[in-house]
Amino acid sequence: MPKELGETEWDAHCFAKITAVTDAVLDDGLLSPDEEAKLSAAMDRYGNPPLDPVTQGKLDAARLQFAAWNTPLDPVEAPLLLKRGEWCVHGIQATAYEERQRTTRIAYAGPTARIKIMKGVYYRAGSAQVARKTEAYHHSFGSGFLCATNKRLLWVAPNKTVTIPLNKIIMFEPFSDGIKVFKDTGKPVLFEFDEGENQPAMVRISRTIEELR
After folding, report:
1. pLDDT number for residue 6
2. Please, which pLDDT band fits residue 21 given cuts at 50, 70 and 90?
3. Average pLDDT of the segment spanning 32-49
4. How far is the first Cα of the chain from the last one, in angstroms, to the nearest whole number?
5. Mean pLDDT value across residues 84-95
């Protein structure tokens, strides 16, 4: 500690320096080995002050995110029976949804006349010109286990199985808590992670589609 600084001032100085380093290494949301070394050197220099839980959580998340992007797509264990030559890259509990359309109401247009047939009974004369109002919605198949393999996305639940070969995927939209998959035929399928936000899982599944299809 420099003589010109008191203990309180030195603590504040160390906190400011460590904060600057952590902000810098977390700038892109990834924590590489080089950045780990830079942070470790700064911690040693300033007496290894304890990090607050929020900062430590961000560092842990950034470390996992870097690994998700940069480590090989090696096989992992999965509680599913796979085909010969097939292996799981990443597995996670997820709820599957299929995009569908439904009619919300039917509107009648055009001139009509209400004509009495008998007591209490009427009919409409003229053109009804039915106009159906529809909306898109996601139909849930329930919760199951999603496995991204070197050949397909395989989702298995007690009463439903969804299989999407990687070479049939024409586009996908990644989210922090899931992924939406568009196939060359059929309706899009959305897989939402049951545990909520999990960016490393999203990254591993996205990389599987991009690198192995």
Report:
1. 47
2. confident
3. 87
4. 57
5. 96
Query: Dihedral through CA 202, CA 26, CA 63, CA 166, nearest 10?
Result: 20
For the chain, the maximum distance between any two Cα atoms, rounded to a whole number of angstroms, is 106
Domains and CATH numbers, the chain: 7-70 (no CATH), 88-103+134-212 (2.30.29.30)
Pick the residue with more confidence: 39 or 10? Answer: 39
